[in-house]
């Protein structure tokens, strides 16, 4: 997990920039709010698409994306 933490106007702030887990030998990306995208960088550097699960998308959306990537 990659977080941004600090203070703004005497208030504590924190936000998640990137969150991933390893589940069943796959990288389950819970959230990627980075720019440039860590997910895209993993793919660009040769990370196998089938080993990445974009968990912030619904199962239906993930299935459609997997079908489109297989074309």
Keywords:
71 residues; alpha+beta; 4-stranded mixed beta sheet; elongated; TATA-Binding Protein
Task: Outline the structure in words.
This protein is an alpha+beta fold and 71 residues long. It has a single domain, classed as 2-Layer Sandwich (TATA-Binding Protein). The chain is 27% helix and 42% strand. A 4-stranded mixed sheet has the order 1-2-3-4, with no helix packed on it. A hairpin with a 2-residue loop joins β2 and β3 (26-32). The protein is elongated, with a radius of gyration of 15 Å.
Task: Give a concise summary.
By secondary structure, the chain is α+β, with helices and mostly antiparallel strands.
Please outline the helices and strands:
Layout: E1 2-8, E2 11-23, E3 26-32, H1 38-44, E4 52-54, H2 59-70
Parallel strand pairs: 3-4
Antiparallel strand pairs: 1-2, 2-3
CATH architecture: 2-Layer Sandwich
**Biggest sheet record:** 4 strands, mixed
Number of helices: 2
Provide the residue-averaged pLDDT: 85
Radius of gyration: 15 Å
